[in-house]
Amino acid sequence: MAELLRTHPLEAWRADFERLPGTVGITVEPFVAMVDVRLSTVGAEASAALGVDLPTAPNTWVPADTGRAVWLGPDEWLLTSTTETPEELEDRVRAAVLPLGGSAADVSAQRISLRLTGARVRDVLAKGCSIDLHPRVFGRGSSAQTALSQAGVVLLALSDAGDDVVVLVRSSFAGYLADWLLDAALEFTPTPHD
Fold first, then answer.
1. Which residue, 151, 164, 172, 187, could crosslink 158 as a Cys pair with Cβ 3.0–4.6 Å?
2. What DSSP assignment string belongs to 136-170?
3. What pTM was computed for the model?
4. Residues 139-165: pLDDT tens digits?
5. Which residues, if any, are the signal sequence (predicted)?
6. Is there a domain that residue 2 lies in?
7. How many CA atoms does the CB half-sphere of 143 hold within 13 Å?
8. What's the pLDDT tens digit per position in 12-44?
9. How far is CA 71 from CA 2, 52, 53, 67, in A?
10. Same domain, yes or no: 21 and 116
11. With bands split at pLDDT 50, 70 and 90, how would you rate the model's confidence at 138?
């Protein structure tokens, strides 16, 4: 049986992203394993079983070994891993939360990640996002489920300065969002006479 090669939905946009100026950088991040976790009670037992203290404050994320744990709701989190396969992550997390009355589902194919860096990242995002992205409000460890232009996204602040943000977007909206981001970044692209 022939093995299918996985192609990133934004492969065709990589060259356009690379031509952006340093004030706004967009990088297509590699695929990562993602598991949606539902768990009604979070405590020491769940933390020990999962190997991470799940964030309980709304709209936050924490580093989790080789990935992240993102708060999505009062009883819902997104766990990611850069080293485990989707099946391995799902099996490990399911084994940890099932005895606690929780559930885990592989959602790795649902979203892809873009990383936005540079001094004008907040300005670009503000063109299509109605939430406050000022570093006082949206600093490192903050997350938000919101609409960016017309695409549902999850934003993760990786720095306190607001110049490093991960955007998780559904794979089916990735091309639309890539085109929108390139258009939104045009204003911050220096012209030849600058």
1. 164
2. TTS-TTBEEEEEETTEEEEEEE-STTS-EEEEEEE
3. 0.91
4. 999 999 999 999 999 999 999 998 999
5. none
6. no
7. 24
8. 999 999 988 778 999 999 899 999 999 988 888
9. 38, 13, 11, 13
10. yes
11. very high
- For the chain, how big is the Rg over CA atoms in Å? 18
Q: Residue 39 falls within a domain, yes or no?
A: yes
Name which of 115, 124, 108, 121 is nearest 161 in CA terms: 121
Cα–Cα dist 5/136, whole Å: 43
The whole domain housing 24 covers 12-30+110-188
Evaluate whether residue 92 is within a structural domain. Answer: yes
**What is the domain-level CATH number for residue 88?**
3.30.70.1520
Domain match, 115 and 184 both:
yes
Half-sphere exposure at residue 25, Cβ-oriented, CA atoms within 13 angstroms: 11
Residue type for position 71: W
